[in-house]
Amino acid sequence: MDDKRPGEEHQPEAPAAEEPKPHFIRMKTFYFIMLVFTLIIATVGITVFALTFGEDKAVEVNSPERQEFQKLYSAYDQIEAQYFENVEEEALINGAINGMVEALGDPYSDYMDENEAAQFMEGISSSFEGIGAEVQERNGYVTVVSPIKNSPAEKAGVLPNDQILEVDGESIQGFSTTEAVMLIRGEKGTEVTLTIQRGENADPIDITIVRDEIPIETVYAEMVNDQVAHINITSFSENTYEELQQAIADMEEQGMEAAVLDVRQNPGGLLNTALDISNLFVEEGKEMFEVQAKGEEPEVYLATGGDKLDVPVTLLIDGGSASASEILAGAMSESAGVTLVGEKTFGKGTVQTANDLSDGSNLKFTTAKWLTPDGNWIHEEGIEPDEVVPYPEYASLPFLDTSVELKDGSISEQVQTAEKMLDALGFDVGEIDGVFEEEMEQAVTEFQEENDLEADGVLNEETMYAVMDQLREKINTEDPQLQEATDILMEQAGLATEEAADEDADSEEADTEEADSEE
């Protein structure tokens, strides 16, 4: 029976089309869904594994962009796209890093490109070619901390606190220390002319220096007398500790019973070297210095056992003694009771760390401050000596400009400097007033006669060099600071001076003669 409704026309059914088998369709869909689900699970698992156990860069790929660099990126993109000339990508990046370092306002922090970094490391670890002077940026000027002993800079008359205004006529005001050093250094035998400001009111002077190989030797020693050795440390480099040990051994063979250690005009160097040397003088277990990083408690460095110098010592310091020299001075003074003689030190109480970057460049910046054993931070203050002995005025006179002759009628600061030099050498120049008059002319003539020069009373190039050479020799041989340090040391050590020994001998001889006369 048909289930048709009334009135509905009955239509014959068309033959049904062949349909796919239902069970086949359901099986394909199931496998497809399972395959997709499995792939998703596998992908998630691999990603989680990579992020958890992979290298740091895997995390960085998915890390959010650092918003503080958006302005930097925008500036870089604008310059690269719109600057009217082609720009070098590396120059822009180096400039950006330099800008960040300069924004610290710290003269001891610096960014060095690959070449500058190589020269920096060369200067610490081996010899290099240049003029041999430690410099730093101070108040916008590249300033000499101190020339290296026996270097071309020292021989040419460069002094601590000289401000270098120009290098070969090119102004370097605003240059970083590293940029200035790149200009000043150069091949052995070549010349470089530094325009120097010495003192606030003096006129700038030009000093031409022939570059040379600056030796790695940093310790010089000699006997002051039969009992006292003078040991001069010029910098703290890789081999300084070994050089000092050898110098001590040499002096002991020559009869050393006491020693004057000298770090005058020593601009510093490697921290580890300073600690090794400090350890020679500080008793085991006593503090040598402290380092304090940001947000951390001070790290205390104590002296250890091992070799110790067991003879009385004094230490010579001055305004050119900086950084590692001050670490040594602080340790010897506060933990070993050593007497400091001379003038106040430079005042550098910070520690720098040099970090190599991937391309060979280097980022050197201040990472901590250091304190003396008593907890004093000497930064920009310096260390005061126990016995203040100033340099004589003639030791810091400016270099004479040999290109300008000085003669009767000349009036200038150069004349006044020459008057002071000749006066220090024992010649009567009359009133020291910067006026070249009859008495000055006579003094020049006498100097020329004594030194087999043409005696015309004119300060020409040859005579000027002879005056400066004699004055330098006087400074080296008549060293009031060394003499005072030696006298203090001999008194502390109970050693008799030559004068006292002579007096004792005369007294004994007189007593003998008196006894003979009484008999």
UniProtKB/TrEMBL annotation:
The keyword Membrane applies. Keywords: Hydrolase, Membrane, Protease, Serine protease, Transmembrane, Transmembrane helix. InterPro entries: ClpP/crotonase-like_dom_sf (IPR029045), CtpA/B_N (IPR055210), PDZ (IPR001478), PDZ_6 (IPR041489), PDZ_sf (IPR036034), Peptidase_S41A (IPR004447), Peptidoglycan-bd-like (IPR002477), PGBD-like_sf (IPR036365). It comes from Planococcus maritimus. Residues 499-519 have a biased composition (Acidic residues). One of its GO terms (biological process) is proteolysis. PANTHER family: CARBOXY-TERMINAL PROCESSING PROTEASE CTPA (PTHR32060:SF30), TAIL-SPECIFIC PROTEASE (PTHR32060). GO terms for cellular component: outer membrane-bounded periplasmic space. The keyword Repressor does not apply. CDD domains: cpPDZ_CPP-like (cd06782), Peptidase_S41_CPP (cd07560). GO terms for molecular function: endopeptidase activity; serine-type peptidase activity. Belongs to the peptidase S41A family. The chain crosses the membrane at residues 30-53. Residues 117-185 form the PDZ domain. SUPFAM superfamilies: ClpP/crotonase, PDZ domain-like, PGBD-like. This is S41 family peptidase. Residues 489-519 are annotated as: Disordered. It comes from the Bacteria. It holds the Pfam family CtpB_N-like.
